[in-house]
Design brief:
By secondary structure, this protein is α+β, with helices and mostly antiparallel strands. It is 34% helix and 24% strand. The chain starts with a helix and ends with a strand.
């Protein structure tokens, strides 16, 4: 075979290999799935929502920057209100709890996901919010998501029965904090039951949303299963759960609250799909004012990217 013919064949083979590699890389990128959580404070018909047209435009701009495929939403009343921020490119799944601070999930249309959605009402242990139980399937892969917004007001206090029972309640403020700890403590059980059910079936799952709990402090305090929410859902490390927020500080609104209360929690099967170092917090560019924390949100969205 002549040398120029050999060179031509090598060139053709190299071109084919490069094209195949480019196609494969494109296919891999196409399989990325960005999953986020965002508490958009009082996004609904409540009197606390004093947003105007420009405020919704600002929120929509941040939603575009977030550019997530799946978004767990908290404090959003309904699809109508969610569309003011995220538009028509998503399907929306909301709880039916009769309260403006509903839990929902927005899932981008036309990305090949099969979705099953149901409410997880067991989290309602007494005037608190339902969760949304979502199963996502694509290309033979399946992952379950539980979107939550747990009881607010007991961010780091021990949740064991004796500690909560001994909390003072002589003032309205003390009584409110004690009730918050009582309700959050009760939510440990349905959360753990959901996890146990998924683990027993060998499923990949992610729990995400506003837990209203500083997991970093649960861990730093070395709480027991009864004392800490993190230890309760992790079954004293037996479940091998992982969240990137436990070892990072929040930069939202200048890092005023450095401990995350919004989390994205993985079990080992789901962690296999996590793309390393993909965790991100979208920080608002504006300087903090109380009004801005109400018209944007007091929470900044967090996200991860999955190979899914």
């Amino acid at each position: 075979m002549r040398s120029n013919e050999v060179l031509m064949k090598k060139s053709i083979l190299t071109t084919i290999a490069l094209s195949a590699g480019l196609f494969m890389n494109t296919a891999v990128l196409a399989e990325d799935l960005k999953v986020a959580s965002w508490n958009i404070a009082w996004l609904g018909s409540h009197e606390y929502n004093e947003r105007h047209s420009d405020d919704y435009k600002a929120l929509a701009k941040y939603a575009s920057t977030l550019n997530a495929d799946v978004i767990a939403l908290q404090e959003v009343e309904s699809e109508y209100w969610a569309k003011k921020v995220f538009g028509d490119n998503y399907n929306y799944y909301f709880s039916t709890k009769d309260w403006v601070q509903r839990v929902g999930v927005a899932i981008r249309k036309d990305i090949g996901l099969t979705v099953k959605a149901s409410e997880y009402k067991a989290l309602d242990v007494g005037r608190v919010r339902h969760g949304m139980d979502i199963t996502l399937s694509r290309n033979g892969k399946t992952t379950s998501l539980l979107a939550v917004h747990l009881k607010s007001g007991c961010f780091a206090k021990s949740l064991d029965k004796s500690t909560v029972a001994d909390m003072p309640s002589s003032t309205e403020k003390e009584e409110k904090k004690k009730l918050a700890c009582q309700l959050l403590s009760k939510q440990k059980t349905p959360l753990s039951q959901w996890i146990d059910n998924k683990q027993s079936q060998g499923e990949a799952f992610i729990i995400l949303g506003d837990f209203n709990r500083r997991f970093s402090q649960d861990i730093a305090n070395d709480f027991s299963h009864e004392q800490g929410l993190w230890q309760a859902i992790n079954d004293d490390k037996k479940q091998q759960l992982w969240t990137p927020t436990a070892s990072k500080n929040s930069d939202c609104w200048g890092g005023y609250y450095k401990d995350y209360i919004d989390h994205i929690v993985f079990n080992p099967e789901a962690k296999k799909h996590y793309i390393d170092n993909s965790f991100n917090q979208l920080v608002f560019k504006e300087k903090y004012t109380r009004k801005l924390s109400q018209t944007l949100s007091d929470h900044c969205p967090i996200s991860v990217t999955l190979d899914f």
